[in-house]
Amino acid sequence: MAFNNEIVQAWVAPDPSPLTTSVEYLSYKQLNAADKERVHQMEAEENGIERPQGYTVSFHYNPEVEQHHFGSKHPMKPWRLQLTKQLVFGYGLHYAMDLNESLPASMSELARFHDNDYLNFLRYIKSPADIQKRHREELNRYVFTDEFNDCPIFDGIWDYVTLCTGATLEAAHSLSSGQSDIAISWSGGLHHAKKRQASGFCYVNDIVLAIQHLLEKYVRVLYIDIDVHHGDGVEAAFFNTDRVMTLSYHKYGEFFPGTGGPDDTGPKGYTEPGAYFSLNVPLEDGIDDKDYEWLFRRITGRTIEVYKPQVIVLQCGADSLGGDRLGKFNLNIKAHGKCVEFVKAHNLPILVLGGGGYTPRNVARTWCHETALCVGATLHDELPSFIPYRQAFEGPSHGSGLLYPELNIKRLSHPKTYERRDLENCAARCEEQLRCVMHHPVVSMARYPQLGTVLRAKQEVDAEIREELEDRGIQDEVKRRKQERATGRRGEYRSIVH
Ligand SMILES: [Zn+2]
């Protein structure tokens, strides 16, 4: 648990209150390892944390991922993972789970979905401008020079992507091998990355890779995405198959990535594989706890009933919380967690992933709360006094040292731009689509004896992409993407920085 003062300074600098380090943390720091352990144990006892009965939860993480920086003004802060870890360990939740320090994913594991040339580029590119000059052609090819690209090249980028992916793949393996029933990877959930392109702060799509792994064992995988942004990368990767159903709840309209509208249901045409298996729930600004929960329970419940998945992948992007630096919703931590609770209640294996989330203290609170839900623990609201970086959670504007501060407060809330009728129409449309899913023959292993079918579908999509690029030339492709972005506001990061 390194105490990185520089990062703390960078974080608290905009706050007018003076930087303080709690007395409790300073005395905790003086303790020897055994006494520190006792402090965590006492905390766990106080919260009644014990290993769950009848099922196993595993936690997959490599702390080296925290040290990476996208740049000081970039909203993606890997430091949020360090805060999450401090809260999870601070409350003693690690006593209730199998802890795994995951290894980075290998090049060949990443190449199961991503293009080899693109991976080689990520592996060798460095951030200084003179090196980038030499790689101009590749930077253009992978659209990194696009003025709307939100994905900077930073030092250690390869380590970062392989660490994030390694944790998620290990978690997926833990489920498929029966070692755990709920596997958590908070550094994963990077749902926008494409086969040969970084997008929306995501370079490598750990979710697609994990689902590919799960498909070796399970016939039907349900992917649920509660990030404020559409899970476009995952949807696109499994567009042509009914072995993966994607369900994404997100803000839609003048918002990144601009996809995931009501008519985006998969390939058009009843007989095509995958038709109707992309389910999208586009939402307006300002949705609150009650409305979100109502919609989530109704649509997710019906989807599970109809599709009958054997495993669920749940992307828990925390940018759908109130007060998020980029998000537009008004959700509180417990309402976000209700989605995890609801999915868990179906007693299926679950891969729980992170995702977006740009107000680090609230990301940490949410993922700590959701870790507690996974192990069935109830945490006290007052944060443990001895945790490092406690000051990041203190003061009225940072949640007053509580785990569950109210986030839907006047100063932060987004005006509601929908009516109850809109939600009802949305639910009815989803149910209509699910009726079409129901009328498709239920996918069975007999129909797909091996993964080949899914991969064949993927190869067809790859061929289409290749043809499209050859037809138009790469520069035209860049231009097209730019035009698309004009409506979808792909460059939102830049718009909030300036
Ligand atoms: Zn997001």
Automatic annotation (TrEMBL):
<dbReference type="InterPro" id="IPR037138">
    <property type="entry name" value="His_deacetylse_dom_sf"/>
</dbReference>
<keyword id="KW-0539">Nucleus</keyword>
<dbReference type="Pfam" id="PF00850">
    <property type="entry name" value="Hist_deacetyl"/>
</dbReference>
<keyword id="KW-0378">Hydrolase</keyword>
<keyword id="KW-0805">Transcription regulation</keyword>
<feature type="domain" description="Histone deacetylase">
    <location>
        <begin position="74"/>
        <end position="372"/>
    </location>
</feature>
<dbReference type="InterPro" id="IPR000286">
    <property type="entry name" value="HDACs"/>
</dbReference>
<dbReference type="InterPro" id="IPR023696">
    <property type="entry name" value="Ureohydrolase_dom_sf"/>
</dbReference>
<feature type="region of interest" description="Disordered">
    <location>
        <begin position="475"/>
        <end position="498"/>
    </location>
</feature>
<dbReference type="InterPro" id="IPR003084">
    <property type="entry name" value="HDAC_I/II"/>
</dbReference>
<comment type="similarity">
    <text>Belongs to the histone deacetylase family. HD Type 1 subfamily.</text>
</comment>
<keyword id="KW-0156">Chromatin regulator</keyword>
<protein>
    <recommendedName>
        <fullName>Histone deacetylase</fullName>
        <ecNumber>3.5.1.98</ecNumber>
    </recommendedName>
</protein>
<keyword id="KW-0804">Transcription</keyword>
<dbReference type="InterPro" id="IPR023801">
    <property type="entry name" value="His_deacetylse_dom"/>
</dbReference>
